[in-house]
Amino acid sequence: MDKLAVVPVNGKNPMNSKKPMGQRVKEFVIDYKRQWEIQSMIIPGIIFMIIFCFIPIYGLTIAFKSYTVIDTLDSAPWVGLDNFRIILSDKYFWDAVVNTLGISFLKLAIGFVIPIILSVMIYELSGGRFKKIVQTISYLPHFLSWIVLGGMLIAWFSSSGMFNEILLNLGIISKPVNILLDANKYWWIATLSDIWKEAGWGTILYLAIMSKIDPTYYEAAKIDGASRMRQIWNITLPNMKPIISLNLILTVSGLLGSNLDQTLVLMNSQNRVKAEVINSYVYRMGMTQGDFSYATAVGLGVSIVSVILLISANKVSSKLNDNQSVL
Fold first, then answer.
1. How far apart are CA 210 and CA 107, in angstroms?
2. What is the rounded CA–CA span in Å between residue 32 and residue 269?
């Protein structure tokens, strides 16, 4: 069947016609009056966003000024791009970038896959009560702060801690060592401890999607003789594709971000060379050393790169999903 043609009316395409601004405003007012009770509920949220999200954007001008605590945003002298030039020549900043990317890529390579595997394993459990127990145990670390978990890790990794006792009894090491003092092991400690804390919580969205899958798909697959692994590969995972793509886009956009709470708890003077990430570096430069202009410039640069990564990841994802974007 041929596609319906759009016939121009008075030289204008009716599909592209736009209403006058006055008419659109009038329709908005009419709709708002009809639903004013519901529409008014969003007003506090809008006010909150304006006060705490949009007005502070003006503070980004500090990145282009030489700001001190005795200045105001308007009185601080402009220095242009000097702060960004300092960043590009700062060795310690680039060390923090390397650490951030190294830890983030490890978390992406390992931590992104584990919640998917864990959610599929939980979904395949047959016992309802046992499934709830497993879910609860996997969620529990998420609700503990890094202060608590960090204290546990510091105790476990100490020279007299649990891990040293296990390694000594297995004959892997001959004398106890404080594992957290070894800078070369920090990336793995940060990655695995973050996965331990967040993997269970990351299964929530996947389990919600899997609960919406039509069970007749599995029944038809069983009739055709498909094994459980074949059902997972051909039914479960394809139905999870949109949410997996969305999570991947958000994870890629956050590659330059890192868990500040985790870093501040686990970092010490011995492992700082491998533990210092961009967020902790910004915190140290801004809050500890008082160089607010430099810290703001670093934060602004990271935000711009993160937006670029977000857009790029979304473009790649849409290409892999038949030009259908999940954002």
1. 24
2. 59
pLDDT tens-digit map of 164-184: 889 888 888 888 888 899 899
Q: Is the dihedral of CA 25, 29, 34, 39 positive or negative?
A: positive
- Of 159, 196, 185, 195, nearest in space to 266 by CA: 185
Q: Domain total for the chain?
A: 1
Whether 287 maps to a domain, the answer reads yes
Q: In the structure, what pLDDT confidence band is assigned to residue 186 with cuts at 50, 70 and 90?
A: very high
User: Which CATH number fits the domain that encloses residue 183?
Assistant: 1.10.3720.10
Produce one character per residue of 175-207: b if its CB has 16 or more CB atoms within 10 Å, e if not: eebebbeeeeebbebbbebbbbbbbbebbebbb
Q: How far is Cα 318 from Cα 297, in angstroms, rounded to an integer?
A: 32
Residue 88 burial class via C-beta count within 10 angstroms: exposed 0-12, middle 13-18, buried 19 and up:
exposed
Residue range 68-101, pLDDT digits in tens: 888 888 888 899 899 999 999 999 999 999 999 9
pTM (2 decimals)?
0.79
